[in-house]
Amino acid sequence: MGCCDSTLLDYKPIDYQWDALLQILINNTTIEDVEITDHTITFNGKYSVWCQNYPYAYGTRYDSIRVKDITGLPTIKTRKLLQKKYIEWFNAKYVNKFYKNKQKNYKTL
């Protein structure tokens, strides 16, 4: 088997129930309702979602070991939407604040 014959995207099956719920969470959650780390997003303090290893494990429930009914991946479309929102929210919460504070410090010199 060559390097391109691997079916890494099929590592976990698509879980359409989780996909639908994740789309609702992404589209109906504001930045104030999410907690972001370098590898997860937690929606409303309840749903932790893995946001690394795009696209292979991206979008799986981070606590899916304890959740028996949700163990698969969202669809590629939802993973792309999640990635876009993760970058947007991460920048808004951390990167933009960092540069604003840095600019404020330069103005006081």
Descriptive overview:
It contains two helices and three strands. The model is unreliable at 1-10 (pLDDT under 50). It has helices spanning 16-28, 76-107; strands at residues 34-36, 40-43, 47-50. The longest helix is centred in the C-terminal third of the chain and has 32 residues, at 76-107. The chain has a domain at 22-94. The protein has a three-stranded antiparallel beta sheet, with helices on one face. It is mainly alpha-helical and 109 residues long.
CA gyration radius, whole angstroms: 17 Å
Order of helices and strands: HEEEH
- Largest pleated sheet: 3 strands, antiparallel
Largest sheet: spatial strand order: 1-2-3
User: Which range best describes the helical content: under 10%, 10-25%, 25-40%, 40-55%, 55-70% or over 70%?
Assistant: 40-55%
Chain-averaged pLDDT: 78
Shape designation: globular
Structural class: mainly alpha
| Count of helical stretches | 2
Beta strands, count: 3
Low-confidence sequence ranges: 1-10
The portion of residues forming beta strands comes to 5-15%
* First-to-last CA distance: 61 Å
